[in-house]
Design goal:
- With 400 residues, the chain is an alpha/beta fold.
- The chain has one domain (18-397): Alpha/Beta hydrolase fold, catalytic domain (Rossmann fold, 3-Layer(aba) Sandwich).
- Helices cover 32% and strands 21% of the residues.
- It is built from 14 helices and twelve strands.
- Strands 5-1-2-4-3-6-7-11-12 form a nine-stranded mixed β-sheet, with helices on both faces. A three-stranded antiparallel β-sheet has the order 8-9-10.
- Strand 6 (201-206), helix 6 (208-219) and strand 7 (226-230) form a beta-alpha-beta unit.
- The longest helix is centred in the middle third of the chain and has 17 residues, at 160-176.
- The model is unreliable at 1-24 (pLDDT under 50).
- The protein binds 2-acetamido-2-deoxy-beta-D-glucopyranose (7 copies).
- Residues 70-73, 238, 317 line the site of one 2-acetamido-2-deoxy-beta-D-glucopyranose.
């Protein structure tokens, strides 16, 4: 090849290499892995080891028992860890003319990974990422530690206080523009240079991702410009209504060696699609316009992810989620009306605006919206995008 031809060829290859994924869907996305260094408290917990399905049932019995220890009583001690973890992340960017120059940082919940935010079936009707990018936001989503394509360390490390520090450092990287500087591309094979720093980072969580976000608003209030906590609220009761037994946990590697063989001791997963339906979906019948299709339920099972026993305790009191005395941004709670896990299938009377106001005394505004007839897995429901419009309009009305 002649030198000039070679240069042209190299230039074409380079150009092709930075063509982002899913440009055909109208948005540019970059998938990559990055190392996130954290120093965090790790609790040493009094919980049963889970190495098989018998252990998994014993774990549920030990957590649910009438006279069992609660989460805080199970803290035997703590150790400080300083470690770097590899997370898989995706950044999707809006078109230049539509760009708000605001980042949304999405944290998914338990039993899913970041695909929860960007569902591949009927994407226009279900993808939160697509809705947010089309509204002008740059969107960062990531697989939480131990999930999806992120690192799967010893289960004892995968717990709330460590994941809170990971969210903190990710946010700091978004704010100082260092997110992709040292990252390894997955697809496309090159990452854009000169990726900007974001003055404004809006945090959006779902379920356990909302609990981590709520903990961020308590511990690092200055890092968040605004927050939307979906699939979560603070009720008067400190005890979750959902029993461990309802989720039907099995030992992850025993449940499906092909999918979860890379998860060791202490990783558990709901046994079947029936528990996925119970936990995440709602429909009255097949023609219910706010219900879900059978394909969407199958998709929930397809992306199903194990959690750790420590994460299960984390949703029961290992994280300090209120009061957020110093958080000054606007805050929206976005609830699914028929959420079984959070509200026992009726969120309408399961929170108290006055109680919430006392827990967030300095917020610019505080709002609760209830998405009619939806189950806990808001993105899986047929009417999902109408809910996204409510969220984007609310953010816009708050100046973000
Ligand atoms: C960790 O344990 C020490 C005592 O060993 C205690 O003083 C400290 O408050 C604990 N930290 C957390 C975050 O629980
Ligand atoms: C692009 O999105 C489609 C769904 O719309 C998905 O099936 C596909 O895997 C995505 N491609 C890449 C390279 O991420
Ligand atoms: C997306 O939603 C609209 C409005 O509910 C519906 O008409 C359309 O069929 C949906 N798209 C698919 C692929 O199901
Ligand atoms: C199906 O569910 C919808 C929504 O709840 C309801 O309006 C409709 O009457 C139901 N149809 C049947 C046949 O039960
Ligand atoms: C656990 O029980 C103790 C009393 O033994 C109580 O002080 C604490 O608030 C409880 N923690 C949770 C998370 O319910
Ligand atoms: C929560 O507690 C407050 C104060 O104790 C009380 O006024 C309110 O009715 C309670 N709300 C619910 C939903 O239980
Ligand atoms: C769909 O969601 C929107 C926004 O929350 C709501 O106004 C509308 O009533 C919902 N439609 C159905 C059929 O539930």
């Amino acid at each position: 090849m002649k030198a000039s031809m070679f240069l042209l060829y190299a230039a074409l290859c380079a150009a092709r290499a930075v063509v982002p994924t899913n440009s055909s869907a109208g948005i540019n996305c970059y998938n990559f892995k990055l190392d996130v260094p954290v120093t965090a408290t790790k609790y040493v917990l009094d919980i049963l080891p889970v190495n098989n399905n018998i252990d998994a049932v014993n774990f549920a019995l030990d957590i649910d028992g009438r006279t069992s220890l609660n989460a805080t009583e199970r803290i035997l001690g703590n150790v400080t860890i300083s470690e770097s973890f590899t997370l898989k992340a995706t950044i999707c960017t809006p078109s230049a003319e539509n760009d708000k120059h605001i980042m949304q940082l999405l944290t998914h919940g338990l039993i899913v990974d970041s695909r929860y935010w960007d569902i591949e079936i009927d994407r226009t009707n279900h993808s939160y990422v697509l809705a947010a990018v089309n509204a002008g936001y740059t969107v960062l989503s990531y697989d939480r530690l131990g999930h999806g394509q992120s690192e799967k360390p010893d289960a004892s490390v995968v717990q709330g206080p460590v994941e809170l520090e990971l969210l903190r450092v990710l946010t700091e990287m978004a704010r100082d523009g260092s997110l992709i500087a040292g990252a390894s591309p997955i697809s496309p094979s090159a990452l854009p240079s000169g990726f900007p720093a974001f003055e404004h980072v809006v945090h959006v969580g779902h379920s356990y991702g909302s609990i981590l976000t709520a903990a961020l608003l308590v511990a690092y209030p200055e890092l968040s410009s605004a927050a939307i906590l979906t699939g979560f609220t603070v009720t008067n009761s400190t005890n979750p209504t959902t029993s461990t037994a309802a989720l039907g946990f099995e030992y992850a590697a025993a449940n499906d060696l092909g999918r979860y063989g890379d998860r060791g001791s202490g990783y558990i997963v709901p046994a079947t699609v029936d528990q996925i339906q119970l936990g995440f979906y709602h429909r009255d019948n097949i023609s219910d316009l706010s219900g879900f299709s059978d394909a969407l339920l199958a998709y929930g099972e397809y992306i199903k992810q194990p959690l750790t026993t420590g994460e299960w305790l984390s949703i029961r009191g290992l994280l300090n989620i209120v009061p957020a005395l110093e958080f000054k941004g606007p805050l929206q709670f976005f609830l699914a009306e028929r959420d079984f896990l959070v509200c026992g299938s009726d969120c309408k009377s399961d929170y108290d605006p006055a109680v919430l106001a006392a827990l967030y005394p300095r917020v610019k505004s505080l709002d609760t919206y209830i998405q009619p007839d939806a189950g806990h897995g808001l993105t899986f429901q047929k009417n999902a995008t109408a809910g996204y419009a409510v969220m984007m309009n609310w953010l816009d009305s708050q100046g973000f």
